[in-house]
Design brief:
CATH topology: Four Helix Bundle (Hemerythrin (Met), subunit A)
Shape: globular
Order of helices and strands: HHHHHH
Number of helices: 6
CATH architecture: Up-down Bundle
CATH superfamily: CDP-alcohol phosphotransferase transmembrane (TM) domain
Helix content: over 70%
Strand content: under 5%
Number of strands: 0
């Protein structure tokens, strides 16, 4: 256990607090914690790389922390009606499909190397940007239009593209292995 991993664990512990804040209508708190989580993600990544503190557990915990935070925020905002439920279903279903594919490959004794695709990285950036804009608008009372529509469309398109690319890669892996 090293400092970057402790910071990542702290980010995981922020998830239920952010969900509580959204559910309680404390959007300023939710937004600030979301920003803190983003800063902590940058700090733990910097520390791990700069001071050679990368670890196997960190490589697993960091994406888990990111996904837990994003998925939780999307679900909470969807339940509260701040974002369309179809988008929540799309975002969450993509992650479930990826995890399901990894598990199936592992059960077939054909484990998949966990390497994010570029479209997935861009998709994550779009998801984070959309969540940040929605939380900021709710926290500080400004109008979202047209930024929400543009970012929402981008998230939807990139999520679908990501699913498609991962499905093709998974099918190729399963048929080759």
């Amino acid at each position: 256990m090293n400092l970057p991993n402790i910071i990542t664990l702290g980010r995981i512990l922020l998830v239920p607090v952010v969900v509580w804040a959204i559910g309680a209508g404390q959007m300023q708190i939710a937004f600030v914690l979301f920003v803190v989580a983003g800063i902590s993600d940058a700090i733990d990544g910097y520390l791990a790389k700069r001071f050679n503190m990368t670890s196997e557990i960190g490589a697993l915990l960091d994406p888990l922390a990111d996904k837990a935070l994003l998925v939780s925020i999307y679900v909470a905002l969807g339940i509260g009606g701040a974002i369309p439920r179809w988008l929540v279903i799309l975002v969450v279903s993509r992650d479930i499909m990826i995890i399901g594919g990894v598990v199936v490959a592992w059960l077939l004794d054909k484990p998949v190397a966990m390497k994010p695709l570029m479209v997935s990285k861009v998709n994550t950036v779009a998801q984070v940007a959309f969540a940040a804009v929605v939380l900021a608008a709710l926290a500080f009372g400004f109008a979202l239009w047209p930024y929400d529509a543009v970012l929402m469309g981008l998230v939807a398109l990139l999520t679908l593209a990501s699913v498609g690319f991962y499905l093709v890669a998974w099918l190729e892996h399963i048929s080759e292995a």
